[in-house]
Design a protein that fits this description.
The complex is a heterodimer of chains A (about 300) and B (about 70).
Chain A (H helix, E strand, L loop, with lengths): L11 E3 L4 E3 L1 H18 L8 E5 L4 H12 L3 E8 L8 H15 L4 E5 H5 L3 H8 L7 H18 L4 E3 L4 H13 L3 H6 L3 E2 L7 E3 L7 H11 L15 H15 L3 H15 L14 E2 L6 E2 L6 H14 L1
Helix pairs in contact in A: 2-9, 5-6, 5-12, 7-10, 7-11
Chain B lengths: L2 E5 L2 E5 L5 H7 L7 E5 L2 E3 L10 E6 L12
Parallel strand pairs in B: 1-5
Antiparallel strand pairs in B: 1-2, 3-4, 3-5
Classes of the chains: A alpha/beta (about 300), B mainly beta (about 70).
């Protein structure tokens, strides 16, 4: 297979685009496309300060790399989750995030959940009895809470995450199976800022997961290859595998699924937009972030529960 | 007369002379879910694998805390 641009041997083939590229042209194509998506979805401008949520994985490090190559003011945020499970997972992922930052002279904010809240994620999950024996729900909750808090406290205009198309399609698939209309109406490349909520953007939302892997390999970016030890058997991975079976039989199926959803949502033909409201959100009496829960938010309630168990 | 394919700690052996895509089908791995490299260079589905070659398969799927919501 040959590169469509120069005729050299191709390194990456994207069947959904009927496009094969050599390494050099692929490394040009990815930032070009990212810039196009940033503009199309009006994510941010070169005048805004961007905080990139960096996990040490391929997507977030790839995103940071692309944004810096495109000339954006992008700092990183690493959240220390305290996941060890015998493979030093958090320690290794932090090392790789820091390594990338140091090699490119970039600023990386590091926030450690245990230092902030007294316990690492697995213990918070265990003591709060959330997530049916797996810490993933607590991990997601804590990450969303902390990313928003830090973006807001440090004065960033926008929070960027490395969600790729496979992530988005898997969430969409799960929410569609459950007809979770409220969540469906909120999903998109940009989640606008609201009272207390930072604008969140997903510049990689139209790249397949394998394209981000290819980007990091081609760029020589060292990322954490080991899967989070708690991710094994997760619902998101199961959905991704199902969608990849579909993609194998029908190239472009994942992309069409996501893009047609965005079109339908935008046109208003999906659900009646009036059903979406944030009017019931109010500031948490503890941390001040918006919540629909009475009095304090789910995160603070979880921390309160953990502290009560710890003290007893 | 074999080609070795390695995915994480697992090793698979297939006959030489097949394409990468056919080799992956033989060992029940979706081409969509991996990137194949040979001597550090990415190779594509139509590449014919030769005797004695070692192909490293890099899993592309990751997941975990993604809950079924958007915020």
């Amino acid at each position: 297979m040959k590169c469509k641009k120069c005729g050299a041997k191709a390194s990456v083939n994207m069947r959904q685009h009927k496009l094969a590229l050599c390494k050099e042209h692929y490394l040009e194509w990815v930032p070009e496309q990212t810039a196009r998506f940033i503009k199309k979805y009006e994510m941010f401008t070169h005048y805004e300060k961007i905080l990139v949520a960096v996990s040490g994985g391929k997507d977030s490090l790839g995103l940071w790399d692309i944004l810096v190559r495109l000339g954006y003011q992008a700092d990183g945020l690493y959240l220390g989750l305290g996941i060890d499970e015998g493979i030093n997972y958090s320690h290794e992922s932090q090392r790789l995030a820091q390594k990338y930052a140091d090699e490119h002279q970039l600023k990386l904010h590091v926030v450690d959940i245990e230092k902030e809240y007294g316990q690492p994620i697995p213990v918070l999950a265990d003591k709060s009895h959330r997530g049916y024996g797996k810490p993933c729900a607590v991990c997601g909750l804590a990450k969303r809470h902390e990313m928003n808090r830090i973006a807001r406290d440090l004065g960033y205009d926008v929070l960027a995450t490395g969600h790729n198309l496979d992530d988005e399609a898997a969430v969409l698939f799960g929410n569609t199976l459950a007809w979770a209309s409220e969540f469906l109406l909120r999903q998109g490349p940009v989640l606008p800022s609201a009272d207390g909520l930072a604008r969140k953007v997903k510049p990689l939302c139209r790249f397949y997961e394998r394209e981000m892997t290819a980007y990091c390999l081609a760029r020589g970016i060292e990322y954490i290859y080991e899967e989070c030890p708690f991710a094994e058997g997760s619902q998101s991975i199961y959905y991704k595998e199902l969608l990849n079976q579909l993609e194998t039989a029908r190239p472009g199926a994942k992309l069409t699924f996501y893009l047609r959803f965005l079109e339908a949502r935008k046109s208003g033909e999906l659900f009646i937009e009036n059903n979406v409201e944030r009017a019931h959100l109010h500031p948490c009496s503890r941390c001040g972030q918006p919540t629909s829960a009475p009095d304090i938010c789910s995160f603070c309630r979880m921390i309160e529960k953990v502290n009560a168990v710890t003290e007893s | 007369m074999t080609v070795k394919l390695v995915l994480r700690e697992k090793e698979y052996e297939v006959k030489p002379g097949m394409t990468l895509l056919d080799s992956l089908k033989r060992i029940n791995i979706l081409s969509e879910s991996v990137i194949a490299t040979r001597e550090g260079e990415m190779i594509l589905d139509d590449e014919i694998l030769k005797d004695g070659e070692v192909v490293k398969l890099i899993a592309v799927i990751s997941g975990g805390s993604m809950s079924l919501r958007s915020r």
